Amino acid sequence: MKLGISLLVSALVLFSCKKDTETALPVLKAIGTQVTEGFSGTTKAVISFELSKPAVKEVTFTISTADGTAKAGEDYVAVTSVPVTIAAGELSKKVEVLIQGDEIMDFNRYFTVNAENVVNATADNATAYITILDNDGYTATSDADGVVTPNTYPKMSLVWSDEFDGAQLNTSSWTYEKGAGGWGNNELQEYTDSPTNVFIENGRLNIKAIKEGARYTSGRLVTRGKKEFIYGRIDIRAKMPVGKGIWPALWMLGSNISTVPWPACGEIDIMEYLGHENFKVYGTAHYDDGGHKSQGSSYSLTSGNFSDKFHVFTLMWQENSMVWYVDYQKYFQFSKTGTPFNSKFFFIMNVAVGGNWPGNPDNTTVFPQSMIVDYVRVFQ
User: Fold this and answer.
1) pLDDT higher than 90, residue 148
2) How many other C-beta atoms lie within 10 A of the C-beta of residue 168?
3) Catalytic residue, candidates 58, 190, 272, 319
4) Is 267 a catalytic residue?
5) pLDDT in tens, 163-210
6) CB 346 within 8 A of CB 255
7) CATH of the domain at 300
8) Which residue among the candidates 96, 103, 177, 267 is catalytic per the annotation?
């Protein structure tokens, strides 16, 4: 008798669970998308709202957009409380939002489309992220000295710059890093704060590598603890030195390097250059992923070189993405979620002599050699 009662209870429990499963409300989920913005007019972003199972009753909700880095009226057409219905027996419904095109070189941007006032479904994940992929560029313009870029951009503000217009280096922004010892790369130079190695002339910063007998001196400047940034557009206009064993760089390190050693702090090489390859520059990201990892690429001029005229080196840096340009020409994109590239970084400008990568100077190398920087600008 007890066995019969037990079987009856088990059957009732199974029936109850089956009934609960059948009558449980479906779950509504929003699926985002990526859209290339276009140069004019509008482009449709299609968002799908999907149910975990077919609806027994029609599911209704409203959708509204919300700004992220993309702004309503500039980047997309806002919608507010627009009704949407998924009919009984259906699994999904697609909705459209208009993306506004332009010819402004900008970051990739995002906004959200949110389901609200949901009836006959639960909505645990009903926010769709729409990423607008920028496809614009500019045509580089030049003066007698080389390529130039503007000091304003649409949709961005200049948050810091050094135009090097003063008589001396602005030490409220820059610090001299001094010393020899190879700097971890078997380099030959000793960095000094001598005005023969670092000076302002004609509104431009000069970092000069000098050979003094068997000794090499040069300059290394950092903005650590003074000017540190997270994200933005960085333009640096500079002219390179030339010669075997000459190794200038415009780069950044994570501001937390004193507590999070390299490479975990992160390194962003906006521009590196080897003096014996005066037609080519490199852009690289360094980080820790079970050990030192790096990703990067190079850009080569089709004519001329980086030592005869000025060129502009640009980093477009936003959350989880960095893009490198030379004279508005994109040549490398890097994406990585999480640390270290979502934290503050500081600038470094230096001219190394010798080292593991370029090798040492030889009898063809002429000294002195200078990297000349016209400006550094940060837009956000």
Assistant:
1) yes
2) 10
3) 272
4) yes
5) 999 999 999 999 999 999 999 999 999 999 999 999 999 999 999 999
6) yes
7) 2.60.120.200
8) 267
Tell me the pTM: 0.83
Q: What is the pLDDT of residue 138?
A: 77
- Looking at the chain, how many residues does it have? 380
Q: How buried is residue 136: exposed, middle or buried, by Cβ count under 10 Å (0-12/13-18/19+)?
A: middle
For residue range 96-131, what is the model confidence (pLDDT) as tens digits?
A: 999 999 888 878 889 999 999 999 999 988 999 999
Active site residue 96: no
In a domain, 359, yes or no: yes
Sign for the CA dihedral angle at 247, 335, 150, 224 comes to negative
Report the CATH number at residue 106: 2.60.40.2030
With H, G, I as helix, E, B as strand and everything else as coil, classify residue 13: helix
Residue 302 lies in a domain: yes
Mark whether 191 and 207 lie in a shared domain.
Answer: yes
Q: Are residues 171 and 62 part of one domain? A: no
Rounded distance between C-alpha atoms, residue 272 and residue 333, angstroms: 16
Count up the domains in the chain and report the number: 2
- Whether 214 and 116 map to the same domain: the answer is no
Cis link prior to 263 (omega < 30° from 0)?
yes
Last residue of a domain, one of 68, 102, 133: 133
At 19, the pLDDT band (50, 70, 90 cuts) reads very low
Exposed e or buried b per residue across 62-73, where buried means at least 16 C-beta atoms within 10 angstroms of its C-beta: ebebebebbeee
**Are residues 61 and 151 part of one domain?**
no
Q: Are residues 127 and 151 in the same domain?
A: no
Q: How confident is the model at residue 23 (pLDDT cuts 50, 70, 90)?
A: low
Structural domain harbouring 369:
141-379
